């Protein structure tokens, strides 16, 4: 039986890549371990090794082909006595899990509606921060997003990089620090090209000492600099949580306003794919709990760019929660203006609807939009709110939406207990109780450490279908 | 590969500063004797700390100061000697919760410090920080940190900013013997050495972290903890203010010349409990008495002044002046009103919107 050689995945989140080069030709004998081809993604390059011995019978994907799906057959290995004629072309053996995540992440599902939904006008409010901390419902800051019409195409990863680079060009005090950010160009390639542009004094590789370098960054911020600290993932940021909360968030208050800490802590948050419990956790509610911090979590590339610029310019410590699964998502609607700075504290209505409000942030926005389409087919018109900022939460936009739809589902990847959904439930209980036609529903990760096994992992994470179910439930359908 | 010159003092073995006053005098021998004016300044600065702390202790006893209150009595020579060696136009300072003396040494106003201890509007943080959390941007004092070990990383970060902006400053980061065992301290030694950060790490080894003696908490020798990173270290007698200043001056010169960080382990002793509520059962009365009677840093300077012929009356004059300053600080701290109720909501974030 001829053996199929499949397009390998370089990482759990890779769905496709380019076949850069064949190092063996049809008819060549290969030993197990021989390098037969090179493949690449926007993040990395890898050699493909033969796992068996035999003869390279047929090359099915030619050199230079882009966008080859993971698990697609790229060549066929023949045993002794077999000929290329024995080869029966097989369909790509992509697993259903991969297919599902691809559709879930396809941004085109949302692009059509994104620009259409009407956004709240917002208002300039005196003493906004004070009122916010007092729990007063205030309109979000105004922002005319529709006025940015000059767009370019970028992935979320590139958008983050562009935002950092633009701000670093503008302000000498801004620097980037973290593990693998400089020479390696970022563990997830979010700082591609930055070392080359800004040099080793401003793009700094650190040792693997999160607690220490977070403290150093905080000290440097107190002494006049504006650091961007990358945590390889937020799971490792736990080592530094003391400095984020005790040193960065509280100093301004404890210093009676004399001394602040303008700093951005950023990195991927939440579950990636099949990396197990220690590498898969959403920290949104952890940091959103803390007065003195701002917490931001982008979904699209435009979110990533506009919010990162806002975070860097903000004179306060900002926790910036990205998502590894979204880094490679490409969008054609990233505003190119240097002034595209999304105000922190302002949500975006991604889709307007009349029947039920779905509140989501980060990766759950894509799933919410997918759910909304499915709901539309079933006759339910859902409104999808992309929070963008977790703290200060745009309570106003959420409440206005509920007053219209009278039903709400909150979707988040974190655990349910004391999560963002719980907070929004409290908000609604306090301010919109009389508007509700059904109790709020939460769609969260199951209340378990994230399991590794593919089937269990899929069960544990919140999916579009769970949002659909929840929305139908609150609509009594 | 970079070769570092490691200060020769590093090879000294651990000193025993207990009791024997003779010890300390011998160290200063190689350095020119301080003149009367220098000694008077030491005397004045150390006395201010002592009297201030005694007053804080009293106010605490009267219920005017709440929470934790960590006094520096006995350790005065450390911060006095080191500050005397600093470039006080640009160097930055950070320490732990035992911070009143560091602020006084940084020339912060005793009234503002005492009023912060009493939690009043006139305090450096308008009553929102307290004894352990006070700052002065103007005097380049960066706290005041309640988390053991945190100040060391922040200090390395202050140094990072000095290097980044090339402003010529050095960060002086104080920590306790207990703090020196924190993981982030080791992390920061590594990064400070790796990046040649201008940081003077000062370990105030007062021989106890709360109730745990150094012997029970710390392996090896604290000033040598930087050795593997190539950071020179030195152990000095912290009951001898002149020795402290001389060592700090050398260390700061070394750092300011671009050589990277330096560790000074300063052997000292706190006379009072860890905080006001500490019964100090973990050490003997005799041990405390031996330091007070034989090694007191203020008495030592006073003796030197008298040996040089300074009249008792001249010293009394200084005592009086200090007493007055502390009295006024205490009065201010009691008269200053509690912070306005609207202070509760301010300074959580730097607000940009008008
Ligand atoms: C991370 C942390 N752990 C524990 C404490 C409680 N604590 C406060 S002071 C202290 C002892 C520190 O001793 P040392 O560093 O020698 O300083 P000293 O009090 O002697 O000046 C401890 C354990 C704390 N504040 N922070
Ligand atoms: Mg101690």
Which terms would index this structure?
heterodimer, A: 477 residues, alpha/beta, 7-stranded mixed sheet, 5-stranded mixed sheet, 16 helices, globular, B: 354 residues, 5-stranded parallel sheet, two-stranded antiparallel sheet, binds thiamine diphosphate, binds magnesium ion
Describe the secondary-structure layout.
The complex is a heterodimer of chains A (477) and B (354).
Chain A: E1 3-6, E2 16-22, E3 29-30, E4 35-40, E5 45-49, E6 54-59, E7 65-69, E8 73-78, H1 96-105, H2 108-114, H3 128-133, E9 151-155, H4 156-170, E10 174-178, H5 194-198, E11 203-205, H6 210-222, E12 226-230, H7 234-237, H8 241-249, H9 251-254, E13 263-268, H10 284-288, E14 294-296, H11 301-313, E15 317-322, E16 330-335, E17 348-351, E18 356-360, H12 363-377, E19 382-386, E20 389-391, H13 395-405, E21 408-411, H14 420-431, E22 441-443, H15 454-460, H16 464-474
Parallel strand pairs in A: 10-11, 10-12, 12-13, 13-15, 14-15, 18-19, 18-21, 21-22
Antiparallel strand pairs in A: 1-8, 2-4, 2-7, 3-6, 4-5, 6-8, 9-16, 14-20, 17-19
Helix pairs in contact in A: 4-11, 6-8, 12-16
Chain B: H1 22-28, H2 36-61, H3 76-85, E1 92-94, H4 100-105, H5 110-117, H6 150-165, E2 171-176, H7 183-194, E3 199-205, E4 208-209, E5 212-213, H8 214-217, E6 233-237, H9 241-259, E7 262-267, H10 285-294, H11 297-307, H12 312-335
Helix pairs in contact in B: 2-3, 2-11, 2-12, 3-9, 5-12, 6-7
The complex binds thiamine diphosphate (TPP) and magnesium ion.
């Amino acid at each position: 039986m001829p053996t199929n050689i499949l397009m390998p995945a370089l990482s759990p989140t890779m769905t496709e890549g380019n076949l850069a080069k064949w190092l063996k030709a049809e008819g060549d004998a290969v030993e197990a371990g021989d390098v037969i081809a090179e493949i690449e993604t926007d993040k990395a390059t890898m050699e493909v090794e033969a796992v068996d011995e035999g003869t390279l019978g047929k090359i099915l994907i030619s050199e230079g082909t882009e966008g080859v799906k993971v698990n697609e057959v790229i060549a066929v290995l023949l045993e002794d006595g077999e000929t290329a004629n024995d080869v029966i072309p097989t369909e790509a053996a992509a697993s259903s899990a991969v297919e599902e995540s691809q559709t879930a992440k396809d941004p085109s599902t949302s692009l059509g509606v994104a620009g259409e939904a009407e956004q709240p006008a917002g208002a300039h409010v005196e003493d906004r921060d004070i009122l916010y901390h007092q729990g007063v419902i205030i309109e979000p800051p105004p922002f005319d997003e529709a006025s940015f019409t000059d767009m370019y195409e970028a992935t979320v990863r590139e958008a983050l990089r562009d935002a950092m680079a633009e701000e670093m060009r503008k302000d000498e005090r801004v620097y980037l620090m973290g593990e693998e950010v400089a020479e390696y160009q970022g563990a997830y390639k979010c700082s591609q090209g930055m070392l080359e542009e800004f040099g080793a004094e401003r793009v700094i590789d650190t040792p693997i000492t999160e607690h220490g370098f977070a403290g150093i960054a905080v000290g440097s911020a107190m002494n006049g600099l504006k650091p961007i600290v990358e945590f390889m993932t937020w799971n490792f940021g736990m080592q530094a949580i003391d400095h984020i909360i005790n040193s960065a968030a509280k100093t301004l208050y404890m210093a009676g306003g004399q001394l602040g800490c303008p700093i951005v802590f950023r990195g991927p948050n939440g579950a990636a794919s099949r990396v197990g419990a220690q590498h898969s956790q959403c920290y949104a509610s952890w940091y959103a709990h803390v007065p003195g911090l701002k917490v931001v979590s982008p979904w699209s590339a435009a979110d990533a760019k506009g919010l990162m610029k806002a975070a860097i310019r903000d004179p306060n410590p900002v926790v910036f929660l990205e998502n590894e699964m979204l880094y490679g998502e490409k969008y054609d609607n990233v505003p190119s203006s240097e002034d595209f700075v999304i105000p922190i504290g302002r949500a975006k209505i991604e889709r307007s609807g009349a029947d039920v409000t779905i509140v989501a942030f980060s990766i759950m926005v894509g799933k919410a939009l997918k759910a909304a389409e499915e709901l539309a087919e079933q006759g339910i018109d859902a409104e999808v709110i992309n929070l963008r900022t977790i703290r200060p939460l745009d309570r106003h936009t959420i409440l206005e939406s509920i007053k219209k739809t009278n039903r709400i589902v909150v979707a988040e990847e974190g655990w349910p207990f004391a999560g963002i959904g719980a907070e929004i439930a409290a908000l609604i209980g306090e301010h919109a109780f009389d508007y509700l036609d059904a109790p709020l529903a939460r769609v969260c990760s199951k209340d378990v450490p994230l399991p590794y096994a593919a089937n269990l992992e899929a069960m544990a994470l919140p999916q579009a279908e769970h949002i659909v179910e929840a929305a139908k439930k609150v609509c009594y359908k | 590969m970079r070769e570092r010159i490691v200060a020769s003092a590093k090879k000294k073995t651990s000193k025993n500063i207990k009791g024997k006053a003779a010890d300390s005098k011998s160290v200063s021998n190689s350095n020119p004797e301080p003149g009367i004016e220098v000694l008077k300044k030491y005397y004045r600065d150390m006395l201010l700390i002592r009297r201030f702390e005694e007053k804080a202790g009293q106010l605490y006893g009267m219920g005017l100061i709440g929470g934790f209150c960590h006094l520096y009595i006995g350790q005065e020579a450390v911060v006095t000697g080191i500050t005397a060696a600093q470039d006080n136009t640009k160097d930055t300072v950070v320490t732990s919760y035992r911070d009143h003396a560091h602020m006084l040494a940084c020339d912060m106003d005793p009234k503002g410090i005492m009023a912060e201890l009493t939690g009043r509007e006139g305090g450096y943080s308008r009553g929102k920080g307290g004894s352990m959390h006070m700052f002065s941007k103007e005097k380049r004092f960066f706290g005041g940190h309640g988390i053991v070990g945190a100040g060391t990383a922040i200090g390395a970060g202050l140094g990072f900013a000095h290097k980044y902006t090339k402003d010529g400053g050095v960060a002086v980061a104080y920590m306790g013997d207990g703090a020196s065992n924190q993981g982030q301290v080791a992390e920061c030694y590594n990064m400070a050495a790796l990046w040649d950060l201008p940081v003077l790490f000062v370990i105030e080894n007062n021989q106890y972290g709360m109730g745990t003696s150094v012997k029970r908490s710390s392996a090896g020798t604290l000033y040598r903890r930087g050795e593997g990173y190539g950071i020179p270290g030195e152990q000095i007698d912290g009951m001898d203010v002149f020795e402290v200043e001389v060592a700090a001056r050398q260390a700061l010169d070394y750092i300011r010349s671009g050589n990277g960080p330096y560790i000074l382990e300063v052997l000292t002793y706190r006379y009072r409990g860890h905080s006001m509520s500490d019964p100090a059962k973990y050490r003997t009365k005799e041990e405390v008495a031996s330091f007070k009677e034989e090694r007191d840093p203020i008495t030592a300077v006073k003796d030197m002044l008298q040996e040089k012929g300074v009249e008792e009356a001249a010293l009394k004059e200084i005592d009086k002046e200090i007493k007055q300053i502390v009295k006024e600080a205490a009065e201010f701290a009691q008269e200053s009103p509690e912070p306005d109720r609207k202070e509760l909501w301010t300074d959580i974030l730097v607000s940009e919107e008008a």
